[in-house]
Amino acid sequence: MNKIIRIQMETGEIKEEYCSKEEQLLAGRALTSKVISEEVNPHCDVFGSHNKLVLAAGLYAGTTISCGNRLSIGGKSPLTGTIKESNAGGNMAYKMGKLGIRAIIFEGLPPKESLQFLYISEEKMALLPANEYKEMPIYPATKKLRHQFGDKVGISIIGPTGERRSLASGIANTDNEGRPSRYCGRGGLGALMGSKGIKAIVLDDSNAKGVTIENAALLKKTQKQLNKEILNNEALGRFTKYGTAGMVDITNALGALPTHNFSRGAFDLAKAINGNNLHEVITQRGGVGNPSHSCMPGCVIRCSNVYPDDQGKEKVSPLEYETISLLGSNCGIGNLDVIADLNYRCNNLGLDTIDTGGAIALAMEAGVIPFGDELGALNLLNEVEQNTWLGRIIASGGVRTGQILGVRRIPAVKGQIMAAYDPRAIKGLGVTYATSTMGADHTAGQTVRMPIEHHHAKGQVEASQKAQITNTMHDCIGTCLFLNGALANHPEWLSDMITAIHGITCSYEELLSIAKQTLLLERDFNQRAGFSDQDDHLPEFFYIEENPDSKTVFDVSHTEMKKVFDFE
Amino acid sequence: MNKIIRIQMETGEIKEEYCSKEEQLLAGRALTSKVISEEVNPHCDVFGSHNKLVLAAGLYAGTTISCGNRLSIGGKSPLTGTIKESNAGGNMAYKMGKLGIRAIIFEGLPPKESLQFLYISEEKMALLPANEYKEMPIYPATKKLRHQFGDKVGISIIGPTGERRSLASGIANTDNEGRPSRYCGRGGLGALMGSKGIKAIVLDDSNAKGVTIENAALLKKTQKQLNKEILNNEALGRFTKYGTAGMVDITNALGALPTHNFSRGAFDLAKAINGNNLHEVITQRGGVGNPSHSCMPGCVIRCSNVYPDDQGKEKVSPLEYETISLLGSNCGIGNLDVIADLNYRCNNLGLDTIDTGGAIALAMEAGVIPFGDELGALNLLNEVEQNTWLGRIIASGGVRTGQILGVRRIPAVKGQIMAAYDPRAIKGLGVTYATSTMGADHTAGQTVRMPIEHHHAKGQVEASQKAQITNTMHDCIGTCLFLNGALANHPEWLSDMITAIHGITCSYEELLSIAKQTLLLERDFNQRAGFSDQDDHLPEFFYIEENPDSKTVFDVSHTEMKKVFDFE
Ligand code: SF4
Ligand code: SF4
């Protein structure tokens, strides 16, 4: 599992390299960020020949370790101009692991406008023409690809918005059953993939050798302990039951649920979109509905779900907290069916639901449609589908939408719309939004589950720092953040499983150290790209406009926030 | 001439202050930048209550010194996020001088969405409702205002695009005859004025006392010498004859005339849009046409013109080099009549011709319309007029247009489209674009008339540094850059005239020192706003794509460019 595949788009040449012994622990985000930091000019034109798109699997890829098959995708972000890593579940990293592939790197630009797939199996690697897939939305395109290459392939794919290089476009990855719904959504990486002329990456692991486990007994033992711990963990049990949507009640109570373009932190229709209601609707409707679904092989948390319509047919999978808030409460929409439709259509078009939700809310704030206008919101996605000018605006994400419409209040940092936590009410996330190497991003340093007074400034910098390091560590291993909940007493399980798989000694401290080095490398890239610590600010209105529901402003000082990167 | 007027938009209160003795030399850009630097939070929301719009007259305001009545307008730029000063000729600063006003500062936001004028005469200062002017284009609005307040008033005004807070909107100022055509175009200051709910500033100097000249004999003598020098200066004579359009042949020969979205530096239709042809068309058509027109009282250079249609009726005034290139060659349009129409319509809508020309060219590069499509270009301005979504995109300037359309090559620095000099062929301007405190801007440090090899990297940093300091000095005094041509042997005339008017001793060195301090203050503001010297870069394609006409790339090293601000 140490093959690195480089595709030179200019020539079409595909090369193989191998990680050296010293690079054995380099995977996931540690690897994408290292490649970008070392090989990409921080000042390059984002759609130019010198930007690179890097897909990297984690250290557990190809095994059935719970939550262990996340895929990292990186590049210089078209949306933010910073370094970017966005990761997702699904079956792609699993198949990369089985095929012995640690990373896939796209370099250069095709000599002329073109659309191709990258196909990889045990026997073959090839760029294949994809012209007939041009402007094809993601669900039908995936269906067609699976028809062409078989049901068992894994697929990473962009929609029409990625092809158009729209800045809010992401990359969809197939889940365990082949749904193209696990999104590397943030940072406009779909547009970067589009600029390389790549519609999809298709991995066929049918004849793959799989991962050779160096110490199968140790792996089995640790995996068993871990799974038991997960199943006994109450908090993780709530994920299994309610999915991430369980968060709605928590943030709503804290006044942290983004509502009406971050003008409020509580939503009068919160009960209609919370985890309880989601669970109830799914279970009552039955059919293919499933409140606890696993997005990848081996996961025992199963935070994913399948949301059915009232006939029991699938509407979308998964329906997650960030989407429920950004396309829901933040747009004044308190209807799960509508949110599910919006979600499905974003997925199909290739759009990040967070930045798109932000864009729709900004269009609402500008008066294009009123808050709460369900049909209006759906119609904005029709506009994207039809590639109208208004559709182009929305697909360029919240910041550009807000700027083009002349809106004062744009809830974003470094060009990227905030996730579903008002930074005035969950101040640790405010620190993360401001300081993260990725722009406003919750997964960069999630503090909401930390035992801390979220409304108070005190301790938030330390909390964010800790979260940023831990979260980055999971991104580097290729595991879901949620796993952290099961590791409180046994962090060494993380490194034990690496030892078991790869036969190298490794400690938890070493993993933390890789995370820290990765963060510093990313920060250095950003500094070389023109970002200074004076860019580590939230928009002014969060400092001066009280959130009426949390009754707080953001008041963590900039001097304090500078300490986030005080580590070695 | 030392009154400072502050308008608090929240309360409608208008206050007067007076410059202290120590501040007597503080005027023009030195004053706008000082106010912004000291009073505006660099991280403020650009359309929020903490941004300010500052108008400042120069040190010669209210006199008839040639080129001595430029108006500076500043704020934190909605387009670039940097500090911004944009200046223009016309009669506004003259009237401010006569009324004893050095600066007008708009603070805060009106409590509700509203549209007002600021009216100032010797007897009265008032905010007046302007609701009936809502969305009214600039020419009819100015006509109506002059009807309401008399033909002699001076007016600074925004168009519908400023009201809509579109990022490419500027502020128009009346010229000597009351045409609203002298533009503070760059940096989106029209949007900032729009955010304050101010449609226009109307100055009535009919009963004004005028400027008390401390040493009339010295002023008269120096003015006479200066005017003689101007009239004997061959280079300035070309300005009088051809206007700034004389530049077309020079840049075209150097391969520096932006053509087809900066993909070429020479235009096959250059002869149709050069100074000779402009002069010929104007003189042949006669009527109100005038090849050498003065935009303000007292100017003997008269670089302005009145461009007539084939019936001898006015099409637009002035038609200038930057516009001819950005709306002309850069869009593949080689027809002065069409360029004049585009210019008129930009003026009328309140748009900066440079950023709008850049946006149209980027729409052409994206295939919205082909290069050279004259009707298509005019139609894009129809879209702006009708406030369609495509119109909103164009009115947001070149960078957002390029980003929304997914274009790779966006010729801009810090969010602002480059002026009409390809930086690969006039490398001193490349240095200015990269390092200026204002984003890509030619007036920030114009090197094209310097005796230097424009194609070579050597000496360009020194040239840009010198130009940036000299140009800033003129912005601080409130004089046209062109004046510099007449000062080669007598720079002291500049300070002598200040002594004559204000009765304070002042040297040329002191003026240079104010310029340097202003630049450093601006740079400091930008650094506090998040800009580092790593932001002082051109887009990558200028470094790697050879300009086929100059056969050069931009190759001044970043390390060299850092030296631009090495002065005290
Ligand atoms: S915890 Fe959720 S995201 Fe992670 S692997 Fe399981 S289902 Fe997928
Ligand atoms: S030189 Fe040109 S811009 Fe300057 S005052 Fe004269 S006409 Fe106006």
Automatic annotation (TrEMBL), chains A, B:
All residue ranges annotated as the Aldehyde ferredoxin oxidoreductase N-terminal domain in the record: 1-207
InterPro entries assigned: Ald_Fedxn_OxRdtase_dom2 (IPR013984), Ald_Fedxn_OxRdtase_dom3 (IPR013985), Ald_Fedxn_OxRdtase_N (IPR013983), Ald_Fedxn_OxRdtase_N_sf (IPR036503), OxRdtase_Ald_Fedxn_C (IPR001203), Tungsten_al_ferr_oxy-like_C (IPR036021), W-dependent_AOR (IPR051919)
Protein name: Aldehyde:ferredoxin oxidoreductase
Entry-linked SMART domains: AFOR_N
Keyword Transmembrane helix part of the UniProt annotation: no
Pfam families the UniProt entry points to: AFOR_C, AFOR_N
UniProt keyword list: 4Fe-4S, Iron, Iron-sulfur, Metal-binding, Oxidoreductase
Molecular function GO labels: 4 iron, 4 sulfur cluster binding; electron transfer activity; metal ion binding; oxidoreductase activity, acting on the aldehyde or oxo group of donors, iron-sulfur protein as acceptor
Cofactor annotation: tungstopterin; [4Fe-4S] cluster
UniProt keyword Coiled coil, yes or no: no
Family: Belongs to the AOR/FOR family.
